[in-house]
Design brief:
heterodimer, A: about 525 residues, mainly alpha, Arc Repressor Mutant, subunit A, 12 strands, B: about 260 residues, 4 domains, three-stranded antiparallel beta sheet, 12 helices, DNA-directed RNA polymerase III subunit RPC6 (chain B), RNA_pol_Rpc34-like (chain B), DNA-directed RNA polymerase (chain B), WH_DNA-bd_sf (chain B)
Chain lengths: ~525, ~260
């Protein structure tokens, strides 16, 4: 992991789990797999705290343990999973997607699972039903069966999956394999039952938290008793399948790119193609399975009323398009078509790079950048001529781009002495390394934004605490039926200036939050592009 | 006294008018005039006076002296060059060919005219040295028209097709095919236009060697990416920014301005 990534992971951990977890997490990220003793020794923290932090990380799936490298019997080593920690940044997007696809119930299910790492189905259903009931009007409640059907739907569409059983891994390591893979925990996909919903007996409705002041003790006891009931799914834990969400994001990005480039109708055709191949295509395949024009025609939603001939025209238009989102794989069945997923990602990444150059250095520099992207190696004179930019300006822009590492300079000497007069200087753009560099920049930017947000909230910590206290007082006063005069008196404890400050703070935090999500979209695109190139080699 | 008066009577025209008349004659006969023509036109003009006027014009660089089989020919010099300039812009080499003046002389004249803001030097739009130079404003006009047309028609054919004639007429410049291709290429690099090559029948308008280039105005496939919507994506001191440093996210002035925006 790079320094930028470790920093971002640390910030995310601090924000979500506190500073102790951050310390342990970053320590593990920096130093690789370590035993419990070394962690305690090197961080200088008490055993109790380290253990708890490791538990938190493990619960979130951000940390794994395996038997030591020194052979059987050696102490277990702990290893942090940086990629998993970076996913925290994308939580809002997962939750939002679940909301748009499966409504409030889906949203809450994903939210609970993300917050708690992994849960059994019965626990999730109960918590979600309770939360939904809380927000409903008095006298109505959410049925468990409704929530569990949403849960099953999420599992069917592979948005949720079973956690890999822990026992299996241990067995494999203790049996005939003397040297088990240490750092490679098996993925959830490799277990045959990972999308099988167990039979759960859950009858009842969501409950409201009791309004009457029961003793805390009593309530906890009740809860424990309730949980103790067997639902038939003990030991089967579920987690969010991030890969599935990423495939969904990728498809959405491709669809919106087609819509921008061509029009709404063609994007609907691509959407249909992607939806049809959702189940049949392997997650990491470079393109979808071929679909015939007839199949596509039949699967098009009838509301778009696209005629067969028009569909054919659209398909040939999509195939001819230089972006090559859609390719032709054969002639049978009215033509077989595929969506070139990896090429689409490469094109989208290229557009991202171009837009970065365009926004940062102006459209003329972007022209030079695109020129170099399309024509590979060019001499300075050729750049000036082809881009139709006066020599002086072109030189300046080119040198700026070189100094920012967006354009590379290649020397080709005619003689082995590299004398400048006998050397060609060729300018070129390498898409993949540039994308990698921008990705690091993105990590740093998000880190900066989080840092700033923490700073802003820290600056007005006193104010925030005050407003919270006053809100609490107000709520308790209202509950006890206080007089309106009393209420206004309490409200006036916050001055106008303070109110203004608070609203400004809220605005700032929101702005920073949304900026973080926006940068994360760039991160997602660049990450998937880099990952896709690593697959094709 | 009397003699002087007679002389004046004879030379009814003063030198300025003589010069004007000669220039008019030259304009009438753009291929050039001989001494004879001037004599016929102004019979009462003394040879001396005539010679003086012509010499003055020559020294001013307004007349051009050419040797012909029948004798000397006078021709207006600059009018032709400037007419060419007005029409579409010329290269200095073309002026030299047409005016038959040495290169240094031409450069001097051009500099002179340029200082009077009558003409201006412009860069060639084309990469190739053989094409004409035309002014930047015109280039931009062509670009605009091309974009407009491609937006309207979806795709524009490059070649002497109907679309293109319209464009060329609007731009008022006779652009060669190469010029337009260069312009279109820059538009491609701007991401505003894309090109596809298709097979065309030989003899179809716009086809070259059995190929035809089709151009189309396009929208970019993505909105500006998320990174550049934040100040950090555009920050000039991004690489110097560290937590707790002189430049740090907590004290960043760019972020503060952006937040208060």
């Amino acid at each position: 992991m790079t320094a930028n990534e470790v920093r971002l992971c640390g910030l995310l951990l601090r924000e979500h789990f506190g500073e102790v977890v951050e310390k342990v997490g970053t320590h593990l990220l920096k130093n690789g797999p370590e035993t419990l003793r070394t962690i305690i020794h090197e961080t200088g923290m008490p055993l109790d705290q380290v253990k708890k932090s490791l538990c938190v990380l493990m619960q979130q799936g951000a940390c794994t343990f395996c038997s030591g490298r020194k052979g059987p019997g050696s102490p277990a080593e702990y290893c942090a999973n940086g990629d998993r920690i970076l996913r925290i940044l994308r939580y809002p997007r997962y939750i939002y997607t679940a909301k748009t696809l499966y409504g409030d119930t889906g949203e809450l299910i994903i939210e609970e699972l993300l917050q708690r790492g992994h849960l059994t189905m019965s626990e999730t259903v109960k918590t979600v039903a309770d939360r939904l009931t809380q927000n409903m009007e008095e006298g109505r409640s959410m049925d468990y069966s409704e929530v569990s059907s949403s849960f099953s739907k999420l599992v069917e569409t592979h948005f949720l999956q079973r956690c890999p059983p822990v026992g299996v891994e241990k067995k494999a390591s203790s049996s005939d394999n003397p040297a088990p893979p240490v750092t490679n925990p098996e993925s959830a996909e490799s277990f045959p039952d990972c999308y099988k919903v167990p039979h759960v007996t859950l009858i009842g409705r969501g409950k409201r938290p009791l309004v009457t002041e029961d003793g805390e003790e009593q309530r906890n006891a009740k809860k424990r008793k309730l949980d103790a009931q067997a639902h038939g799914d003990e030991g089967i834990y579920w987690q969010v399948n991030f890969e599935r969400f990423h495939l969904h994001f990728r498809d959405q990005t491709i669809i919106s790119a087609v819509a921008n480039k061509l029009d709404q109708t063609s994007s609907e055709i691509v959407r249909t193609m992607l939806r049809m191949s959702e189940v049949t295509t392997a997650p990491l395949a470079p393109s979808t399975k071929p679909l015939s024009a007839n199949e596509i025609f039949r699967s098009l939603p009838s509301s778009y009323s696209i005629q067969r001939q028009i569909l054919d025209q659209y398909l040939s238009l999509l195939v001819d398009d230089p972006m090559e989102f859609v390719g032709k794989a054969g002639e049978s069945g009215g033509g077989m078509f595929v969506v070139n997923l990896h090429r689409a990602l490469a094109n989208l990444a290229r557009a991202t790079l171009e837009s970065v150059v365009q926004e940062r250095f102006g459209s003329r520099s972007a022209r030079i950048f695109r020129l170099l992207l399309r024509t590979r190696h060019l001499e300075q004179k050729q750049v000036e001529d082809f881009a139709m930019i006066p020599a002086k300006e072109a030189k300046e822009m080119l040198y700026t781009l070189v100094s920012e590492n967006l354009v590379q300079l290649q020397e080709v000497p005619k003689t082995p002495d590299y004398a400048p007069s006998r050397t060609f200087y060729l300018y070129t753009v390498n898409q993949l390394p540039t994308a990698r560099m921008l990705l690091q920049n993105c990590y740093k930017s998000v880190g900066n934004l989080i840092e700033r947000r923490l700073f802003e909230t820290k600056e007005s910590k006193r104010l925030l605490e005050k407003s919270q206290r006053i809100e609490a007082i107000l709520a308790s006063l209202q509950a006890s039926g206080a007089e309106p005069e009393q209420l206004t008196e309490v409200e006036e404890m916050i001055t106008a200036a303070e109110k203004q400050q608070l609203s400004a703070l809220r605005l700032h935090v929101n702005k920073l939050d949304s900026a973080e999500n926006q940068v994360d979209e760039t991160i997602f695109l660049l990450e998937s592009y880099i990952f896709s190139t690593s697959l094709t080699g | 006294m009397a003699e002087v008066k007679v002389k004046k009577e004879k030379g009814v025209l003063d030198p300025a008018e003589v010069e004007k008349r000669i220039k008019e004659l030259c304009e009438q006969f753009p291929q050039g005039i001989t001494d004879h023509v001037i004599q016929n036109d102004m019979p009462h003009l003394e040879p001396q006076q005539r010679a003086g006027a012509i010499n003055r014009l020559l020294s001013l660089g307004q007349l051009d002296l050419l040797r012909n089989s029948s004798g000397l020919l006078y021709r207006l010099k600059d009018t032709q060059g400037s007419r060419a300039l007005v029409e579409k812009g010329v290269r200095s080499r073309d002026i030299r060919f047409k005016s038959n003046l040495p290169l240094t002389e031409i450069n001097k004249i051009l500099k002179n005219l340029e200082s009077k803001k009558l003409i201006k030097a412009v860069k060639s739009v084309a990469v190739s040295l053989n094409s004409c130079r035309c002014s930047r404003a015109n280039t931009l006009n062509v670009l605009r028209v091309l974009l407009l047309l491609s937006k309207i028609f979806g795709s524009t054919r490059l070649g002497p097709g109907p679309c293109l004639t319209v464009e060329v007429r609007v731009s008022q410049v006779d652009l060669s095919m190469e010029d337009i291709e260069t312009i279109l290429n820059t538009l491609i690099y701007d991401g505003k236009v894309e090109m596809t090559v298709i097979v065309a029948k030989e003899g179809t308008a716009g086809s070259v060697d059995g190929q035809m280039k089709l151009y189309r105005g396009v929208n970019s496939i993505t909105a500006p990416t998320g990174l550049v919507k934040t100040p950090c994506g555009l920050c000039p001191v991004f690489d110097d920014c560290h937590d707790g440093g002189e430049i740090s996210p907590s004290t960043c002035i760019y972020l503060s301005e952006w937040l208060d925006f």
